[in-house]
């Protein structure tokens, strides 16, 4: 039996949902963990995932954490539809992309999301509940300094030290994707793979924040074409859009729109 603990807007949870959908795995018991209300800090959940993050996969009582590892596990256990290239070089390219996600892009996405949207959501909490929410973040989570960093971003917004660097880093990866896609259909060659599964949540996050201007309008045409191919896949909508509650979808769009001018300024785009 497969069980997935996940959240609607979590990029990592969406990655696993996308992999499940692409592999045609439907018999999964879903447990919704509202990370913006602090469900991930429940003692029983922390026993499953000591970092207090999503996703967590449970397969016949075996617990697997870390979304990249979960996706590779699913490909090993359910090999009928493979998401791993069939030659060594493309497999190496795939792993370079998934490594980049884990080491650089995901931590940047955490900061990007909080500064442009999620800080506004958690600031709706009464002060005592907000303090409890911030206090409960484990020291080792998105990064080994995420507890203090999240608190800093929630309190300071774009004035938090290093936010400009984070947003430029995110933009750099879009440019790297665009350069790679000049000569190929997918990120690790001519076959759709875990590289594409891994990067999709991070581009979709920007799209849901109404920040697709980072690649549309001729800025990064190969990323634009790639994302259109991604959105046309049958597994996309269910994995990324259907699980995100309407209120959260609206918050991402509205707060993202409000903060788009600040992001444009940081990455050097002309303001309207």
Which descriptors apply to this entry?
four-stranded mixed beta sheet; Glutathione S-transferase Yfyf (Class Pi), Chain A, domain 2; 4 strands; alpha+beta; 7% strand; Glutaredoxin; 2 domains; 272 residues; 11 helices
Task: Provide a brief overview of the structure.
This protein is α+β, with helices and mostly antiparallel strands and 272 residues long. Helices cover 58% and strands 7% of the residues. The chain has two domains: 2-77, 3-Layer(aba) Sandwich (Glutaredoxin), CATH 3.40.30; 88-267, Up-down Bundle (Glutathione S-transferase Yfyf (Class Pi), Chain A, domain 2).
Q: Please, could you describe this protein's structure?
A:
The protein is of the alpha+beta class and 272 residues long. It folds into two domains: 2-77, Glutaredoxin (3-Layer(aba) Sandwich); 88-267, Glutathione S-transferase Yfyf (Class Pi), Chain A, domain 2 (Up-down Bundle), CATH 1.20.1050. The protein is 58% helix and 7% strand. It has eleven helices and four strands, in the order βαβαββααααααααα. It has helices at residues 11-22, 43-48, 67-77, 88-122, 127-136, 146-156, 163-180, 194-208, 221-231, 236-242, 246-267; strands at residues 2-6, 28-32, 56-59, 62-65. The chain has a four-stranded mixed β-sheet with strand order 2-1-3-4, covered by helices on one side. Strand 1 (2-6), helix 1 and strand 2 (28-32) form a beta-alpha-beta unit. Helix 4 (88-122) runs antiparallel to helix 7 (163-180) and helix 4 packs parallel to helix 8 (194-208). The chain is globular and about 50 Å long. The termini are far apart. The model has no long low-confidence stretch (mean pLDDT 95).
